[in-house]
Amino acid sequence: MFLRWQQWNRRARFVLWVIAIIGVAAALPLGAVRMEMEKSSKQVEYVFDYRDIAEVAEKQARPLSFLTEKLALLKESGITTMAVYESSLKELQLSGRLTYYSSRDAAMLQGKFEAVGQNFTYILFSGPKEEELIGPIVRKAFDRSEAVYSDWSFGGRNGIVVEIPIAEAIMKTLDFDPMSLQTIHDAGLGILPRFSDRVKPYNQADTEEVLANLKGYGVNRVLFDGDKVKGASDQATDNSLTEFGELLKKYDMGVAVIENLKKPQEGINKLAYITNYNAVRLYSLSETDGMTMTTSAISDRFLLAAKDRNIRMFFINGMVESNTEKAKVVHSLDRLAEAMSAEDGVVAKLSKDGFTPGTPKPFDFDPPSWNKPVRAVVALGAIALIALLVGAFIPGVYIPVFAIGLVGSAGLYKLNSSIMEQGLALGAAIAAPTLALVWVMNRIYARTVGDRRVIGGPNWSVGRSQQGQAPQPGAIYENGSRMKWLFPALSTGRRFGLALNWFIVATLISLMAVPILFGLLNNITYNLKLEQFRGVGLLHLAPIALVAIYVLLYNSQITVGRLKALLTKPITLTWIILAAVIGIIGYYYLSRTGNSGQVSSIELVIRRFLESTVGVRPRFKEFLLAHPLLLLGLFLSLRYRAAWLLIIIGSIGQLSMVDTFAHLHTPLYISIIRVLLGLGVGAIIGCILIVAWQIVEGAIRKWAPAIVRKFVE
Question: What is the pTM of this model?
Answer without folding.
Answer: 0.84
